[in-house]
Design goal:
The chain has 135 residues and is α/β, with parallel strands linked by helices. Helix content is 34%, strand content 19%.
């Protein structure tokens, strides 16, 4: 009778199967990606004016930022001020709203022109972002 080597059997059974662990990791990754709420940013740093009547909005679909130099940004991309209305109207649905984040040092004329272009494009719910003052 021939004896089998015990070491050969131990080598085969000592391998760790990583497939189930990788499956669990990928399922968790998919779960976290699907359940994450993405925060919309305008793409530029804006110093918002203060207001005691500022209220949060939950139905924001598009952020339009106006820099102190008068540049207009939509969802992180610079846009010509004459194309703001057409660009935003394609991004916003009927019940969504647009928030304009104008820097406190931006000129009022640029803000009014952006608002007019949005209204001309059919965007009805337009708000101007402000930061709540402490008083």
């Amino acid at each position: 009778m021939r004896r089998r080597r015990v070491g050969a059997v131990d080598e085969e059974s000592s391998e760790v199967n990583l497939t189930p662990m990788l499956d669990v990791v990928f399922i968790m990754l998919i779960f976290f990606i699907v359940t994450t709420s993405f925060i919309k940013e305008s793409g530029v740093e804006i110093e918002r004016p203060e207001s005691s009547a500022a209220t949060p909005r939950s139905d924001v679909q598009v952020l339009v930022a106006i820099t102190p130099e008068g540049a207009v940004w939509i969802d992180g991309e610079p846009v010509d001020i004459h194309r703001v209305g057409t660009q935003v109207s394609g991004l916003v649905s009927d019940d969504g709203s647009v928030v304009i984040q104008a820097d406190r040092n931006a000129t009022t004329g640029v803000l009014i022109e952006v608002m007019d272009r949005l209204r001309d494009a059919g965007v009805e719910q337009v708000a101007v972002a402000a930061q709540r003052s402490g008083g």
